[in-house]
Amino acid sequence: MLFDTLICTLLQVSQCSLRDLLLHCCVDDAPDVRQSAFALLGDLARVCPIHLHPRLSEFLEAAAKQLEISKVKEAILIANNAWWAIGELAVKMVGISL
């Protein structure tokens, strides 16, 4: 619980630049960067999804691109993290006005 509170507090301080940086990492050319970015996206969606709301459509678009058949064949771990992030966003955004 302390971790969740700390993450949300940190996001409030630097939420704009963190969102921008995370989105940039989600579309980076390096597979390892994308894999880690989608893992972080899922974690953030789980603990404080409201802070992702302003760029939600862009995050979902970036994640969906990782689920194209050609991309999945290249990097299954990225696709797995992208699916997980989408799922966390879907679960946590229920009831939040878009």
The low-confidence runs, each spanning 5 or more residues with pLDDT under 50, are none
* Percentage of residues in strands: under 5%
Cα distance, first to last residue? 26 Å
Question: What is the molecular shape?
Answer: globular
InterPro entries: ARM-like (IPR011989), ARM-type_fold (IPR016024), HEAT (IPR000357)
Keywords: Repeat, Signal
Signal peptide: 1-16
Protein name: Transportin-1
Structure overview:
- The protein is an all-alpha fold and 98 residues long.
- It has one domain (2-92).
- Helices cover 77% and strands 0% of the residues.
- The protein has five helices and no strands.
- It has helices at residues 2-26, 31-47, 56-65, 69-74, 76-92.
Compact summary:
By secondary structure, this protein is an all-alpha fold. It has helices spanning 2-26, 31-47, 56-65, 69-74, 76-92.
Question: Helix and strand layout, with pairings?
Answer:
Blueprint: H1 2-26, H2 31-47, H3 56-65, H4 69-74, H5 76-92
Helix pairs in contact: 1-2, 2-5, 3-5
Brief descriptors of the model:
Transportin-1, 5 helices, ARM-like, 77% helix, mainly alpha, ARM-type_fold, HEAT, 98 residues, globular
